[in-house]
Amino acid sequence: MDLVTPNLGLMFWTGLIFVLLLFILTKFIWKPILSVVNTREKSISDSLELAEKTMLEMKSLQAQNENLLKEARAERDAIVRDANAIATKMVEDSKNVAKLEADKIIISAREAINNEKVAALAELKTQIAEFSLQIAEKVVRGELSSDEKQKALSEKLAADFKLN
Length: 164
What we know:
By secondary structure, the protein is an all-alpha fold. It has one domain (8-163). 93% of the residues lie in helices and 0% in strands. It has helices at residues 8-143, 147-163. The longest helix has 136 residues, at 8-143. The N and C termini lie far apart (193 Å).
């Protein structure tokens, strides 16, 4: 049982060593350990605050990006609408110009056809007149080939003149 009962001398030296060790620890080691722990705690809290600020900034930037995307889409849609309107107007203008040109060409062609028709009719009349003269000449030569026919024709013509 001696081992279980404490001795007064052993308790004294154990207490003295404990107090001395506690004094040394608080004087030389406890402050640097506490300062390192406090520094570490401060850097962790600063990092957490920075992370929260960064998160808020990211949310703000994301909202700004969404707004910019909406504006860009609206602007793109407006540009596309304007381009379609301009293209439609250009097509309509081109159609109108083409129609006017086609109408001018048709009118010009009709005039050319009418001019050609008039010229062809005039030429046809001229040729018919020439053929008629040639036929009349041949008929008259046939009629006037003999002297008796010439005298009969001249008497008939003279009688016609006297009647008029």
